[in-house]
Design goal:
Oligomer: single chain
Number of helices: 6
Radius of gyration: 14 Å
Distance between the termini: 36 Å
Helix content: over 70%
Shape: globular
Strand content: under 5%
Order of helices and strands: HHHHHH
Structural class: mainly alpha
Length: 107
């Protein structure tokens, strides 16, 4: 996480550092009782991408959107969850997580 923070400090307008930080924090979270430690980093990743979209970052951003959708789903905010899954589809039309979950949710 320390190295991701240094990268973010040097390159705050690139999603890479936020992605690495979020992935590290997510790995430290408990799958059975998630505390969503990576939420802030994924949120920053998505905001950074939306400010300046680029094709190179789409897979990382799809992961961020899926994470945010999962977070909102766990909060029982299905409207917000669907919104994020649709954003995933917007950057990665073949994303299995988003397409399958949207089908389950009725979209």
């Amino acid at each position: 996480i320390k190295y991701a923070d240094k990268y973010i400090e040097a390159f705050p307008n690139l999603v890479d550092g936020y992605y690495w930080k979020a992935q590290s924090l997510d790995e430290m979270d408990d799958d059975n009782a998630p505390t969503f430690k990576a939420k802030d980093a994924y949120e920053k990743l998505t905001v950074t991408f939306e400010a300046k979209p680029d094709d190179r970052s789409k897979k990382m951003v799809a992961t961020g959107y899926n994470y945010m959708a999962y977070f909102y789903g766990k909060q029982n905010d299905l409207v917000k969850a669907k919104e994020y899954y649709l954003k995933t589809i917007g950057v990665d039309r073949t994303n299995k997580i988003a397409t399958q979950t949207l089908l389950q949710l009725g979209n």
